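Homework help board

Subject: predicted structure for assignment chain

Our instructor gave us this sequence and asked us to write out the predicted structure in token form, then describe one feature. I got the tokens but I'm not sure how to describe them. Can anyone check?
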Amino acid sequence: MVWNARWPSFRSLLKFVLLGGLVAIGVGVATYNLRLTSQIEKQAESTTALVAEIAGPVLFAESPDPLSLARLRQVIDELDFPFVFTDRNQRPIIWNAEQVGVAIPGSYEEVLLAPLGDGAPDWILELQLRIESFDAANDPVPLRGPGGGEPVGWLHYGDSRLSRELFYAPLIEVALVFVFMGTVLFAFRLMKRSEQRSIWVGMAKETAHQMGTPLTSLSGWLAVLRDEVAMARAEGPDRDQVLTEIEHDVERLGRVSDRFGQIGSRPRRRPARVDQLVERVCEYFRHRAPHLGKRVDIISEISPCPEIPISSQLLDWAVENLIKNSLDALDKDEGWVRVSCKHDARRHRIEILVEDNGCGMSMAARQRVFDPGFSTRERGWGMGLALVRRIVEEYHRGQVDVARTVEGEGTVFRIRIPAV
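My token output:
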């Protein structure tokens, strides 16, 4: 199946759906947690007001009852958010040590007699810092004595541990969802690649098998024709040229069959000159150019390159596919394809550029141009550039990409192969 470049692929639609689902889940989780946090804060305010109403008469009675103080401390220790009770002079009187994070001295009298100001003990200073942070988050609640009237103290409180954890819960949940969906997308991508690879490797093997029979037949008929020409050479002087062309085509079909046969297996690489290989391919297309129905110049800019281990048949095929792709992209009566090859000694690699002045590509097509099955042409198979990537990256440990493309101006494909 060939996807048209004008329409989004199923995979792209799936990504958009998954992304939209993630955003919806994130918004839903965040909204729910914010609502829950708001309810907890309201409950904390109600609890604080109730505790202040109960604690005021106990703490500020003329003669505080030790038993009532002990019960009050027990109630405060059970609460899930930090409290500090102070008198009107901001002296700490009682607090829940576990939530506030400051230990209570040995006796209630020690708390009441502790100095304030410069000579204050460390625990007083720590409590004052906690009180400042509590007041910045929540307004202190006034405490009134047994007879009511003016405030005789204050209750300072902070956010509960649960509300603090709920604040970060949406972020954690959304992060986990993103990790899960990313894992699913990655697995889907691997499965898709494996499926595509299996399809076109199988196609290549079957093509090589199917081409074997006509090649054998052509070779037999070529032998018969040669025998006839040998017996009647004077009658058909032009037959030698015909036979030569048939022989070239048979050899080329044999190379194509060998190329397809090597796909899916590890080809043997032998030392060869990439510059000479590229020049041969350019010469082949120069010979074919007059039959394309348009005026096309095949320009080659080849620099000498050292021998490197390559599969000549497969790399030859990759360069052919790039040039053929450039020829197909020419949308003008007169066009050109420029092929360059040079050795980058500093980076230890050989670089091949195939440039044309054709129709160029959109950004969406550029991102998918090497995907198996993708083609911008209605009748394209979408296999040529996918084969190029496999030949360059998997068989020669190189890189192939679109170096530049501008719609209406042309495209530059680039191959880089390690020269080691």
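Reply (TA_rk): Your tokens look well-formed. For the description, you could write something like this. Residues 267-418 form a domain with the Heat Shock Protein 90 fold (CATH 3.30.565.10). That's the kind of observation they're looking for.
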